[in-house]
Amino acid sequence: MKSTSGRRRKAPAPRRTPPPRYLIVAAVLLVVCSVVAGYLVLDHSDGDARAASGGKNGSAAGGTTKSNQEPAWDGKVKVLGDGSTSYTGPQKNELKAEPLKPGEKPPQFVVFSWDGALQGDDELFSHYRELAKEYDAHMTFFLTGIYLLPKSKKDLYHPPQHSVGSAAISYPTDEHIRTTLTQLAGAYEDGNEIGTHFNGHFCGAKGGGDWSVAEWKSEIDQFYDFVENWKTNTGYKDLPALPFDFRKEVVGGRAPCLEGQPNLLKAMKSYGWRYDASSPGDFQIWPAKKEGFWDFPLQMLPYPGGKYQGLSMDFNFLYNQSDGEVSGDPSKYPEWEQQAVDSYMAGFNRVYYGSRAPLFVGNHFEDWNGGIYMKAIDQVIKQTCTKKGVKCVSFKELADWLDVQKPETLERMRGLDPAQSPDWSTVVK
Asked: In which residue ranges is the amino acid composition biased (Basic and acidic residues) (predicted)?
């Protein structure tokens, strides 16, 4: 199936599980795309107040970030390699990470993330950059490596377990490579995060779930090769170097179709990354580390009707609403869009008035079902990022914040039911 942006995507149909007798809030990994609702959704009203999220506070103060271990920047731009990238100093406009004070309620973090960031004909990359700026938010844009590789050079890609140059998605047009480069530079300068969505988007048989550690390393190495040598591969000498070093700035990613995390985590240890967003799904609880990396899963949100919960991604709504058809019944579009908004907001309200666990949203730059999932996200950004105490941040900024908290505080926070609003003096000591 193709979209106006030239991409092709497939996803496994979600499964629903029968209702558990009890729901125990724990770090239980569920390889599902929906499950029976078990948490009370709280419905409150709250006066809106513009909350600083991205902020203008300079570099993040993450406890284990590589930037804290490096010498101070000398103020000189360093062009790297063939001129495709450069180092322009620590990223500006990042959230300043600070430990909670005793009794302090945590911020309500919301992370909007995008798989396969490409500026296509729909111009959704630039749209969400502008929306982020308007609502003082930062986002995570997961770049697919071959989106900077011309189709004429596809033989440079050697995907694991597949023929040379093959991919499960379309290669970009030359013009889309140029516009994507412009958006990547702007996104970084705005304070957003650039992560990785790897390269060929292979799922199912011979996809990431079947790859060895060595094959995952090959995929990662090729990602770096494509993004660090786009000038050589494209011949675009008229475009400036990207204003960041991928080796410093890429600290995590999301695997296509959420497959292959066990071996991917082992492979990641060679690259100094800090988090992974490839978990298939989990409850709305405070994050924990897995194999030394922060684990940021998609989350199970209450689905309208209360019969089950669905993952916080447009794919899941697509399958639940139109059985995986990207162009379903147009007469249903308004209803489906509102269902998506209601589900996201139910998940948000559950933790905003409860445990304050972060809300993770993962979407794609696609026009499925008339673009209703993009329109839904537009509404959710406006309804959440403006609320008092909310910080709409990138995964990297969230990792920075988690790194400076006391481990025992995070452990107590992880024990909270999502809808539980505790006496914070007993949690944050």
From this structure: 93-103
Using alpha carbons, select from 262, 270, 253 the residue that is nearest to residue 291. 262
CATH homologous superfamily, domain 16-426: Glycoside hydrolase/deacetylase (3.20.20.370)
- Phi, psi values for residue 329, rounded to 5°: -65, 115
CA distances from 239 to 62, 83, 177 (A): 33, 10, 11
Tell me 70's DSSP state. S
Q: What is the pLDDT of residues 271-281, one digit of tens each?
A: 999 999 999 88
Task: Report how far residue 206's alpha carbon sits from residue 363's, in angstroms, rounded to the nearest whole number.
Answer: 24
Q: Contact at 8 Å (CB) between 97 and 403?
A: yes
Instruction: Name the nearest CA neighbour of 123 among 40, 48, 183, 169.
Output: 183
The HSE-up count of residue 196 (CA atoms within 13 Å, CB side) is: 30
Question: What is the SS3 assignment for 30?
Answer: coil
Convert the pLDDT of each residue in 91-123 to its tens digit: 998 899 999 999 999 999 999 999 999 999 999
Q: Would you kindly state where each structural domain of the chain is located, as residue ranges?
A: 16-426
* Bridge partners, residue 195, by sequence: 142
C-beta separation of 418 from 355 below 8 A: yes
Separation in Å, CA 56 to CA 18, 106, 368 = 47, 20, 35
